[in-house]
Amino acid sequence: MAYNGITPTVVAGKIKPTRIPIPPPMKIEDLMKKIAQLNLDQNILKNITPNITWKGNPLFIGNSIHYDLLHPKEALVASTLRLTPLQYLTYKLILISSARGYSQRSFPFRKSDAQKHLPIDVNRSSKLWEWFTQTGWLK
């Protein structure tokens, strides 16, 4: 089961979800291997324009570590959502692998599911879900 940052806790006799900190990120080499194993069609990025908006100014990530691992359109999305390249890549792996797990069990992977799987605010999770849906990577 994929880690979703939520664990059940009993409070006053009722089971309530409790967010726990995410485990430390894996090494970038391992992260990139896992992303490569997803066999994502990168050619779609040539023909798509990100339709993602966010409040505030984009974050400048051009000098960030691992920036070179992002496609320019992915870098635009990460910058717009004010995510570092490492955060974007980690969330990409989490969302796409989670969506595939849902698909294997014949369940739809909805925006609310994406929000539960990522340790960030629900608005950013929703925007990432929209972006990965636009790319066709969340089938």
UniProtKB/TrEMBL annotation:
Q: Which InterPro entries match?
A: Homeodomain-like_sf, SWIRM, WH-like_DNA-bd_sf
Q: Which Gene3D superfamilies match?
A: Winged helix-like DNA-binding domain superfamily/Winged helix DNA-binding domain
Output the Pfam families linked to this UniProt entry.
SWIRM
Residue ranges constituting the SWIRM domain according to the UniProt record: 50-139
Q: What SUPFAM superfamilies has UniProt attached to this entry?
A: Homeodomain-like
GO terms under biological process: regulation of gene expression
Under what name is this protein listed? Answer: SWIRM domain-containing protein
